[in-house]
UniProtKB/TrEMBL annotation:
Main location: endoplasmic reticulum
Name under which the protein is recorded: Vesicle-associated membrane protein-associated protein B-like isoform X10
Keywords on record: Coiled coil, Membrane, Transmembrane, Transmembrane helix
Species, as recorded: Branchiostoma floridae (Florida lancelet)
Domain of life: Eukaryota
Skewed-composition ranges (Pro residues): 194-203
Family stated for the protein in its record: Belongs to the VAMP-associated protein (VAP) (TC 9.B.17) family.
Occurrences of domain MSP (ranges): 7-127
Length: 264
């Protein structure tokens, strides 16, 4: 079964011309005209996808309108002896009813009926300017190669030193100064008068002799009993109780035992 005839009118119709030199991006424009009263979807393909950039590479051409497609050839080392075999193909088909977004466009081309597709093929032609043709006639082929300039080596510049050098002091002078400082501090410490402890003088009543016939009171005055040292040293003699301290101690132990038993 024969394919459908292309409804889009391509300008140019058979060739895409690219003018060199090809050391930079070269652009060729393709115009798609839709003379029908229906919307037409298109898609652009190439045999060398790494060499070209196409914008837009797909879309919809409205009825009785046109769209421009830019085909950009990327820079490369052109070899006049190499035969150019790059080709482009523009596929098209009538758009379905309703809105078309990117996802719908992708699915539509994926599920398209091959019998409903229309296509047109174009070959790529590389043209050289007159000065390049003259250089080629003289055998100069370096004009078609990309310039790869290497940057000059960086010079290592040492940063200026900002550290200020301080002359070293002699070791003897440092030690001598330390000895002077130590002697000065010792002199200041010696000049400070010693602090005398403020011990209160015993009262005249505390110097009163204890009667020899009262054995219990004589025992209280002896410094060997540590339990009475802090309780009777500064107390007047007239306030002393006639009850022996042993009874107080025994009563305190009994009371502490009873309170501890109730608490536990």
């Amino acid at each position: 079964m024969s394919k459908l005839e292309q409804v889009l009118i391509l300008e140019p119709s058979g060739e895409l011309k690219f003018k060199g030199p090809f050391t930079e991006v070269v652009t060729s424009n393709l115009k798609l005209n839709n003379p029908t009263d229906k919307r037409v979807c298109f898609k652009v393909k190439t045999t060398a996808p790494r060499r070209y950039c196409v914008r837009p590479n797909s879309g919809v051409v409205e009825p009785s309108s046109s769209i421009n497609v830019s085909v950009m050839l990327q820079p490369f080392d052109y070899d006049p002896q190499e035969k150019n075999k790059h080709k482009f193909m523009v596929q098209s088909m009538f758009a379905p009813e309703g809105g078309i977004d990117n996802e719908t466009m992708i699915n539509m081309w994926k599920d398209a009926d091959q019998t409903q597709l229309m296509d047109s093929k174009l070959k790529c032609v590389f043209e050289l300017p007159p000065e390049a043709l003259q250089a080629l006639a003289k055998g100069k082929t370096n004009v078609f190669k990309l310039e790869t300039s290497t940057p000059p080596p960086r010079k290592s510049v040492s940063a200026p030193s900002i550290v200020k050098r301080v002359p070293a002091r002699p070791i003897k002078s440092v030690l001598f100064q330390n000895d002077l400082d130590a002697a000065k501090e010792a002199k200041e410490v010696a000049a400070v008068p010693p602090v005398k402890p403020n011990i209160p003088k015993p009262s005249p009543e505390a110097k009163r002799p204890v009667p020899q016939d009262d054995g219990l009171r004589q025992r209280k005055a002896t410094p060997s009993d540590n339990t009475q040292t802090f309780t009777t040293e500064f107390a007047p003699v007239e306030q002393r109780s006639a009850i022996p301290p042993v009874l107080y101690l025994l009563a305190a132990l009994i009371l502490g035992f009873i309170i501890g038993k109730f608490i536990l």
